[in-house]
Write a structure and sequence with these properties.
Layout: E1 2-9, H1 13-20, H2 26-29, E2 33-39, E3 42-47, E4 52-60, E5 65-72, E6 75-84, E7 89-99, H3 107-130
Antiparallel strand pairs: 1-7, 2-3, 3-4, 4-5, 5-6, 6-7
């Protein structure tokens, strides 16, 4: 399942990058994530729906790219968030995930739900940074 969202933000690129790299703030903007806890070099994620995942965060500070790599859980794959340009800065969130066998029957509905959640999260980030 692949989909993406993007939004333009009038804010300093480094300030946006700092916010995106604060894993503790993910649930504040991404409401599908209830909590996230660092355990060694991975993160334990509790979703808003019944489900848990193991994730790795990979940052490329030189190119302003943050990748959430989901290793185990209701889906596996990546969510890559990148920043491009300046004044405004474009925040792009690109998902490339594979649903677990139990969820595949609901892939059409879930893709719409994930897409809407991505757009809502990006808007929350924009509103926070521009306020």
């Amino acid at each position: 399942m692949e989909f993406a969202g993007e939004i333009d933000v009038m804010c300093d690129k480094n300030k946006i990058w700092e916010l995106l790299n604060d894993y503790k703030r993910i649930p504040e903007f991404w409401h599908g994530t209830r909590s996230i806890e660092k355990t060694g070099d991975t993160y334990k994620v509790q979703f808003a729906f019944p489900g848990k995942a193991t994730m790795k965060l990979e940052e490329d500070s030189n190119n302003f790219v943050l990748t959430e790599r989901y290793l185990k859980g209701p889906f596996t794959g990546t969510k890559t968030t990148r920043l491009e340009g300046s004044s405004p800065v474009k925040i792009q969130s690109i998902w490339n995930i594979k649903l677990s066998p139990m969820l595949r029957a609901f892939s059409g509905k879930l893709q719409g739900h994930f897409q809407e959640g991505t757009e809502d999260a990006l808007l929350r980030i924009k509103n926070y940074l521009e306020s």
